């Protein structure tokens, strides 16, 4: 199996300690390694863990459970990191979800239940039901990685601007 | 006595006019004249920051440029990120217009009426026609959050007065699957088209039209 890489993003706006701890836990890392993901890139945002050094924009490297891990806090755009990855594990921000799915990457999303009025959980669940991604809770991350079958995921449709143009055409009397 | 009669008369007139303008809106009597296939429409786009801005820019990026041109991007005070992101889609004639916020993040609801009216006064100039044109053009696209309610209110003031106004199209965010946003709930009876992207939302408002994923 050729080495594959995974990318974890916890988002830029709110800390998500639970997700970071869950993915860096031994069972999740072992699940990643067993699936062939021997590289893990982590955007950790404002999240800080007691057993990690204070992460700054300079990446910090470590190795655990046979996985090469690289951590950093923020970048203006994550698209290069998403493109490089074979699997993305992400908070359930709808912008990130659409970006990842449009780049055709396998995606596991973990809604941040600590956020109030979190309607983004709805998007995760609805897209999970349509098999565009896997949505799971924090304690289930390791199992979701272990059970991941990328061939069962349905590709997300490409952007098609024609329907919105049709709405405006109707409204303006073109059609 | 005479003063009271005048006031009462004015109030009655106002109510009648408002009711008539809204009746026309609901009846869609105000049909847009069919344009020639070569004419272009001016579009103004409200950029609501963050994910709202991302979706609004995506929507207009797919438009046929020979039929629709962007006359203005409208953004809330202090949202420099939206301006940066809009610049790549801006033509030389595209205006970037800043309007005061209706509500800051975490601002208590009790003080919203005051900031709402301040925002309204700062925005009303956008609907005053000069040489028959306004910066809002033929279509105003909105997708939330709060400050676009002010824009819609200004358009209604213009309709009340009888000035030319844009058709208002509101597109609820892709992130809204089972419940409408607050601005969506408020605006649904007052915009000309209220579009939702998930079928579950179509039954949430009698004004909602489900047109699939638009982003």
Automatic annotation (TrEMBL), chain A:
Keyword Glycosyltransferase belongs to the record: yes
Molecular function GO terms recorded: N-acetylglucosaminyldiphosphodolichol N-acetylglucosaminyltransferase activity
Domain of life where this protein originates: Eukaryota
GO CC list: UDP-N-acetylglucosamine transferase complex
Subcellular location: Endoplasmic reticulum
Sequence ranges assigned to domain Glycosyl transferase family 28 C-terminal in this UniProt record: 7-155
Catalytic reaction list: an N-acetyl-alpha-D-glucosaminyl-diphospho-di-trans,poly-cis-dolichol + UDP-N-acetyl-alpha-D-glucosamine = an N,N'-diacetylchitobiosyl-diphospho-di-trans,poly-cis-dolichol + UDP + H(+)
EC number, UniProt record: 2.4.1.141
Keywords: Endoplasmic reticulum, Glycosyltransferase, Transferase
Pfam families in the cross-refs: Glyco_tran_28_C
Broad EC category: transferase
A single GO BP: dolichol-linked oligosaccharide biosynthetic process
Gene3D superfamilies the record matches: Glycogen Phosphorylase B (3.40.50.2000)
Family as reported in the entry's similarity comment: Belongs to the glycosyltransferase 28 family.
Known role: Involved in protein N-glycosylation. Essential for the second step of the dolichol-linked oligosaccharide pathway.
Subunit structure: Heterodimer with ALG14 to form a functional enzyme.
Protein name: UDP-N-acetylglucosamine transferase subunit ALG13
Source organism of this protein record: Exidia glandulosa HHB12029
TrEMBL record, chain B:
Presence of the UniProt keyword Transmembrane in the record: yes
Membrane topology summary: Single-pass membrane protein
Predominant place of localization: endoplasmic reticulum
Keyword Ion transport attached: no
Domain of life: Eukaryota
Transmembrane feature ranges: none
Keywords: Endoplasmic reticulum, Membrane, Transferase, Transmembrane, Transmembrane helix
Name recorded for this polypeptide: UDP-N-acetylglucosamine transferase subunit ALG14
Originating species: Exidia glandulosa HHB12029
């Amino acid at each position: 199996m050729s080495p594959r890489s995974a990318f974890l993003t916890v988002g830029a706006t709110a800390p998500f300690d639970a997700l970071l701890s869950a993915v860096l836990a031994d069972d999740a890392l072992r699940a990643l390694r067993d699936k062939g993901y021997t590289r893990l890139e982590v955007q950790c945002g404002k999240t800080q863990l007691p057993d990690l050094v204070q992460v700054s924009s300079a990446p910090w490297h470590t190795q655990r459970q046979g996985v090469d891990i690289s951590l950093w806090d923020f970048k203006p755009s994550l698209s290069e990191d998403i493109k490089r990855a074979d699997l993305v594990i992400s908070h359930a921000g709808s912008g990130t979800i659409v970006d990842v799915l449009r780049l055709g990457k396998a995606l596991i999303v973990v809604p941040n239940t600590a956020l109030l009025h979190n309607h983004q959980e709805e998007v995760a669940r609805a897209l999970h039901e349509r098999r565009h991604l896997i949505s799971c809770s924090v304690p289930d991350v390791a199992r979701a990685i272990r059970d991941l079958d990328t061939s069962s995921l349905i590709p997300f449709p490409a952007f098609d601007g024609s329907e919105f143009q049709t709405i405006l055409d109707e409204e303006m009397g073109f059609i | 006595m005479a003063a009271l009669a005048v006031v009462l008369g004015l109030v009655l007139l106002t109510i009648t006019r408002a009711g008539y303008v809204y009746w026309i809106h609901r009846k869609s009597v105000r049909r847009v004249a069919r344009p020639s296939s070569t004419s272009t429409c001016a579009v103004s786009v409200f950029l609501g920051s963050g994910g709202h801005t991302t979706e609004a820019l995506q929507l207009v990026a797919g438009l046929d440029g020979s039929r629709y041109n962007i006359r203005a991007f409208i953004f809330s005070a202090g949202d420099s990120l939206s301006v940066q992101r809009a610049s790549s889609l801006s033509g030389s004639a595209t205006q970037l217009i800043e309007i005061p916020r209706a509500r800051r993040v975490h601002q208590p609801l009790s003080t919203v009426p005051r900031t709402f009216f301040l925002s309204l006064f700062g925005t009303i100039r956008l609907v005053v026609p000069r040489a028959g044109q306004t910066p809002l053009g033929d279509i105003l696209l909105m997708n939330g959050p709060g400050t676009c309610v002010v824009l819609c209110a200004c358009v209604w003031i213009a309709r009340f007065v009888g000035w030319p106004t844009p058709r208002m199209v509101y597109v609820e965010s892709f992130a809204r699957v089972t419940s409408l946003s607050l601005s969506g709930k408020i605006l649904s009876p007052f915009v000309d088209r209220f579009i939702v992207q998930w079928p579950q939302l179509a039954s949430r408002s009698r004004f909602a039209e489900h047109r699939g994923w638009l982003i």
